[in-house]
């Protein structure tokens, strides 16, 4: 085989490997956003996929057990128990009534095991209907002064 033939075979192998790695990685890293009713409708197929589920944290449901955090989220009059076993600290906005996004897998026991948690509390940063926006205060000072 001549020098150009060997080079062509090497290029084809490299390109083929890169295409294979790209397609294999896409399937594994894709996540789907689901509401609690959509997750419940999936049945047993929910345990086979990495998912993201969104809901509001039920007041009084946050329980910390060492590095684990258990809580309940609600949405459309349904609830879901979530256990967070991640290594990252929980966001500062993670508290009662905050909207939480749990990233993980549904366990066979019906408990969602999350490896990542995102939270937002839109009511903290938006004005009440009919009232002008007031910036949040920290230690008695307005945030806009800094």
Can you give a write-up of this model?
Helices cover 26% and strands 34% of the residues. The chain is an alpha+beta fold and 146 residues long. The chain has a domain at 31-122: OB fold (Dihydrolipoamide Acetyltransferase, E2P), CATH 2.40.50. The model is unreliable at 138-146 (pLDDT under 50).
What is the structure about, briefly put?
The protein has 146 residues and is of the alpha+beta class.
Core attributes:
alpha+beta; OB fold (Dihydrolipoamide Acetyltransferase, E2P); five-stranded mixed barrel; 9 strands; disordered C terminus
Secondary-structure topology with pairs:
Elements: H1 3-29, E1 32-34, H2 36-42, E2 50-57, E3 63-65, E4 68-75, E5 78-84, E6 99-106, E7 112-120, H3 122-125, E8 137-138, E9 141-142
Parallel strand pairs: 1-2, 5-7
Antiparallel strand pairs: 2-4, 2-6, 3-4, 4-5, 6-7, 8-9
Strand line-up of the largest beta sheet = 2-4-5-7-6
Structural class: alpha+beta
The top-level CATH class of the domain at 31-122 is Mainly Beta
* Corresponding CATH superfamily of the domain at 31-122: Nucleic acid-binding proteins
CATH topology of the domain at 31-122: OB fold (Dihydrolipoamide Acetyltransferase, E2P)
Radius of gyration: 23 Å
Instruction: State the low-pLDDT regions, or none.
Output: 138-146
Strand content: 25-35%
CATH architecture descriptor text of the domain at 31-122? Beta Barrel
SSE order in H/E notation?
A: HEHEEEEEEHEE
Would you count the extended β strands for me?
A: 9
- Major sheet, described briefly? 5 strands, mixed, barrel
What is the end-to-end distance? 71 Å
Name the shape in a single word: elongated
Helix content: 25-40%
* Average of pLDDT: 79
Tally of separate helices: 3
